[in-house]
Amino acid sequence: MFGKFGRLTAKPGLRDALLTILIEASHGVAQLEGCRLYVVNTSPDDPDSVWVYEVWDTEQAHAASLELEETHLAIRRAMPLLAGPPDSGLTLTPIGGLGIDVS
Description:
Number of domains: 1
Order of helices and strands: EHEEHHE
CATH architecture: 2-Layer Sandwich
Mean pLDDT: 93
Largest sheet: 4 strands, antiparallel
Distance between the termini: 11 Å
């Protein structure tokens, strides 16, 4: 399995607009082959940050999702809302747990 945990920081006051784009993207990503989990998170300690946790069957499945026109459109919509470039975050190897079937 392949996991990513990344942070995007919205310009002040634009976090909710960014959340809308990411939640919409989650609906499309959920339909893709190999996507196990795509969770959009906020932090009560940082009103401008949005954290996204993704779990994929393989790194290649994740990479393929980034090549889709729908993904490119979401990125183009989100970029003007960001205070800076997305944090590349962490690359993880999910092992198991509630919500992740590793069989």
